[in-house]
Structures are given as C-alpha cells and as structure tokens.
Amino acid sequence: MPFDPIELEVFKHLFHAIAEEMGASLRRTAFSPNIKERRDYSCAVFDAAGNALAMGDHMPVHLGSMPMSVHAAIAELTLAPGDVAMLNDPFRGGTHLPDITVVAPVFVRNAAGKRAARSQRPAEPDFFVAARAHHADIGGTFAGSMGPCREIYQEGFRIPPVKVVRGGAADRNVMELLLNNVRTPEERDGDLRAQLAACHAGTARLHELCDRYGRERVQRAGLALLRYSEQMMRAFLATVPAGSYAAEDFLDDDGVSAGRPVRISVRIAFPRKLSVSRPVAVDFTGSSLQVQGSINAVEAITYSACFYVFRCLLRDDVPATSGLMRPIQLIAPAGTIVNARPPAAVAGGNVETSQRIVDVLLRALAQALPDRIPAASSGTMNNLTIGGMDERAGSAAPFAYYETIAGGSGAGSSHDGVSAVHTHMTNSLNTPAEALEYSYPFRVMKYALRSGSGGDGQHRGGDGIVREIELLTGASVTLLSDRRKTRPYGLAGGGAGVPARTEILRADGSVETIASKTSARMQPGDRIRIETPGGGGWGSAEP
C-alpha cells in the first residue's frame, strides 16, 4: 500500500526526534564525563521485529551494530511491560564489554488512542527502544577495561541478555552483581540509570505518537521508512559502475605478536543488474585469522562499518534504518579478524579494527567513485585509559578515566581535510580541559594542533593533535591505538599522513617512547604525550 510521501517525511522526523531526545536525556542525567562531556552513547528506535526505524546522530560504531543486540534480547528473553533488558556480550550483537546496551519493549495504546486494559495488552511489544553507552570501567585486568588482553575473560564483566528491570522495578540482584565487579560502582550505577531514563523517555514519546496518530498508522509508517531506505540504497547502488573492486590495509600489530601486521582485505562486487537475488557483495575473505591480542572485531562491528560507509554515500535526508543494508550481502568468514569467535579478546576491535575496516572499504570504493571518496583519515581512536586512587578530597576514591583522542581527516577531491576531529566510527567530543582537571587528578599541560602531520597534495590532509597530561597521583595508564607504523593513505597521488607517536615524560627528565598497545605504571609528576596521525592528502601537489 503506497504511503503518502509528505506523511512519510513527517514520520521520519518524528522517529528521529524520539531517538535524539533519548540521547539528550541520557547525556543530561549521566554521571561520567565520558558520557556527559564526550557523548559516548547512542540511542535508537526499533519496530516489533527489531529493525531500526531511527537513530540519533550519535556514534556510528554503536548504531550499525545495535540491531543485533536488540535481536539477541528478543530471541533470548520474554519481555513484558515494564521490563528492560541489559547486555554487553560482543558475541550477541555487542561491540566490546564497556559498551552496555539496555533494550526496552514498548506496548503502545490501541488505535483509538486509549490505553488498553491490562488483560487486553498485546502479547508482543509493538516497538523497542535501546540506549548504548560506553562505561569508563567494566572490570577486568586493566583499569578502564581497554587493555592489551589475550582473551575476553580478562577484559571485564560479560553480560548476556538479562532483565535489569522487571515490571518497572530494578532487579537489585542483577545490579549488585554488576556493581561488585567494577572499579567505580557509583558512577556505573548513575550511568546505567541514565540509560534507563533514556529508554523511559523514548517509551513515553512513542505512546504520545500512537495516541496522536493511532498505533497501526505509526507501524505502517515504520514499514514504509524501511522500504524507502531500501529503495534509495538500491537506486544509488545501481549508479555505481559494475565490477569488482578490491583493497587491503593493515593494523600495525595486535599488541602481542610485536611487529607482525594484521591484514584486512575486502572485495566489493557490484552486479550488472542489482536484484534481490544478486545483491552487492562485500567480501572480507583473505583477511587475517583472529589474533591473540585484543584487536579482534566481532561480526557486529564489521556490519556496523559497512552500514556506516554505505550510509555516507547517500544523501543526508535518507533515513538511517535497517532497510539500507537489505541490498548488501556481507561475507565475513568466521574465525578471522573481522568475525572473531570466543574466547577472543575484542576491546580494540570496536575502536581500532572498525576504523581500519572503514579505511579498506573506502579504498576499494575509491576505484569505482574516485571523486566521491576521501583519503584515509587518522585511522585510530587513540584510546587512553587511566585508573588509580584519587586522594585530592583527603580520602582515597577509585577513578577510571577513558578518552578517545582526535586526529586529522582525509582530504577529498574538492576540499582539504579537517584538523583535530573525530572521524568515521567515532563521533564523540573531547573532554574539555576544565572538566578533565575537575573530575580527575590530572593537569593538562598541552593541547595543540600537530602542525604538518596531514598528507601533502592538491588538497592537504587535516592535522592531528598533541595532548599532554600530567598525573598528580600514581596510576595505571593504558594505550590502545594504531597507525604508529602504517600511515593513513593518500588518494589520487596525495601523500600519506604522518603516523602517531606516544611518549612518557618521566618526572626525572627521562623520555620513553611506548608501543601503540601497552600498559604502564606512572608516578605523580609523570606526563603522557600523545601525538595523533594526520589525514591523507588528495591529488598530486605538482602543478
């Protein structure tokens, strides 16, 4: 049944507004600077089958994979009114353990806009809402839960789909089990309750939407949005020259097998005539087998990276729904770096390997769409975690700080790259120096552009940054990053970006260059300085 295009546009914005309001609620009620300041969270609205109808303008690495977590919750739990599920298992649609997802079913009012009696409530939810947030610590060997581990059991507390709220009341047993296994329980409790508040806001808005338009009409609009997104993706894919486009790139190493690069390979095949039986195939066969270190990506991450790249090729006004991926077939062989199996460590797969998957996809697509695709951006999130005891208030209290540090974006055929910006799979902000020094026993000594780090070319890549932090207390410092050996590639003759570098400046005056994936003990007065990569240049600099 055709859906009125004007009404479709109205519902597209209504669903998106709900996801955005959920995000605002989460941000305003969270405890940790990682969520309040950096906005390391994502919210979305789903139909009864777990298809994404709308996503907030949040974190791409969260959003593309979140439907898999919703599907896992639906498959493994019977969610009644007032229930909320919680999970973080990377092998059930999660990304890595610090990213906890909460999923709430929505039982809406009837088509006449009145509440159904309890006995008349539908047996199945009509919608779902979900909120995912990166928690600054989820237990495990390393403070911040982002260390160079060798198996997932070392990385933190792993949560299968469980009910954290039952009939509107929090399950204290589940909450206590979680909070007794993390370093900062009060902050974790506050952030998790902020996620529950976000789901409550989304549920309330869906009730209001169905009150106004009727449940059946809203559900039909959701189905129409899924079809429309699919049609728009099919229309775009049909314009891409038929053929097979291959590319590869490498992660520096896995943090365990030093000096051994990790290969990611892709081949994207566009058929001459796109159809349901002949989709666009994105094939990662040939990528390295899963590794000992923590840079393994689960299938949800690879799917999320593909979703992000192909969504970027469409107009901004096309709704980001699950329908976008219907014309695309993902082939990610099990047991490889792009589809790791238990008990692989995966903390870095979410933050580092996801970025390299995007780099490889764009490099392949540049062969088909040379004027549309930019050079490589910095290609690393430069994950920094610091944990210890804060004694500034007179009594020691545990703290766990986490941040991703920006770099330069790649240049394109018509523009230079942007300096000091988060790119691709991360869409977070920085922690302002004032908030950082207020919340943690740190002092920001330097925060500046890394001049000249962008690649040369007709259009230059954006510059990375230099961030130097002094510790005011002894702490464990962990770095999970990349692009220290490999460089962000240029395109069309453009130069590569300058690789990253990290140093520890000891209080005694000595300087120690550290590896991209390592953990070290630092003392009061020691400083860590991170110099992030610039983006690749586009086009030859020669006249």
Folded structure, characterized:
The chain is α+β, with helices and mostly antiparallel strands. The protein folds into two domains: 5-230, no CATH class; 374-543, no CATH class. The protein contains ten helices and 20 strands. The strands form four sheets. The chain has a seven-stranded antiparallel β-sheet with strand order 2-1-5-4-3-6-7, with helices on both faces. A hairpin with a 2-residue loop joins β6 (162-166) and β7 (169-170). The protein is globular. The model is unreliable at 115-119 (pLDDT under 50).
Secondary-structure map:
Blueprint: H1 5-29, H2 33-36, E1 41-47, E2 52-55, H3 60-63, H4 66-76, E3 84-87, E4 99-106, E5 127-134, E6 162-166, E7 169-170, H5 172-179, H6 185-213, H7 215-237, E8 243-251, E9 262-270, E10 280-283, H8 299-312, E11 328-331, H9 347-368, E12 383-390, E13 397-403, H10 433-439, E14 442-450, E15 464-471, E16 475-480, E17 501-505, E18 511-513, E19 517-522, E20 527-531
